[in-house]
Amino acid sequence: MKSNIGLGAMGMSGIYGPSDRAESIATIHAAVDAGVTLIDTGDFYGMGHNELLIRDALRPGDRDKVKLSVKFGALRGPDNAWGGMDTRPAAIRNFLGYTLVRLGVDHIDVYRPARLDPAVPVEETIGALSDLVKEGYIREIGLSEVGSDVIRRAHAVHPIADLQIEYSLLSRGVEDDVLPTLRDLGIGMTAYGVLSRGLLSGHWRADRAMAPGDFRAHGPRFAPGNVRHNLDLVEALRKVADARGVTVAQLAIGWVAAQGADIVPLVGARTRERLAEALTPVELTAGDLAAIEAAVPADSALGSRYPEPMMAHLGSR
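Above: the chain sequence. Below: its structure as tokens.
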């Protein structure tokens, strides 16, 4: 049975602190066995660790069952510091060459720049990706975290398969302009952050100690003054979930899925237990959706979804 939810593998490579390799691989196996047909990664997740993990996890026959979505272009140093973006045509071919080897495949299903490179016109980037489609190294071109103008400019050069962007009950900026643009052009959306990096999981506590390397320690929504307010929203959502007999996470994922058949929620499950919870289908009625909206109104979260210096590189607040 095909699942309408994708697996985001980023959390398996240290971004939220240490992870268990054996459990990560078992979770990927469980996702494929459950009918998940999209696995999302980035060549900079764990400095290539994530791609190597996926390669080791895919069993004989699994490659033909899943689409591999890969983000590229983000520059990082040996100290894990971020160094901007590079989407020059020569750099793209270099990134892709390494990715194909690390994943152990001969093509990538959806290849996308992780962010807009301010030094390279998007038309030049998409033109280079279009050449790679013609050469058979990638099947489709995607975008990530860009606004409507860039989407239209890119789509005029080569058809864009989908936009990957954050979308959740706590992050609804795409609804104003980006989502209508996608629908006008017939482009799908891959929604990441559907649980707002754990805030909407139903398991987060305001006093939770974060592991070394967990980037949420720098997230404005997890700052001491903001996190308690945001968790109050979660508790309001929990009342709706309890009335439906589902978990907070299932309700939050179900809400994103209910926003349109052209939206594929990405879940960043790192364990089989969390994956099973995320994959449990929840059919929401109009009454459910109204109750969810009342519990977590648009723009009710405190804190931006990234630190402000990073927000400047995003296509939607």
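The longest strand covers residues 138-144.
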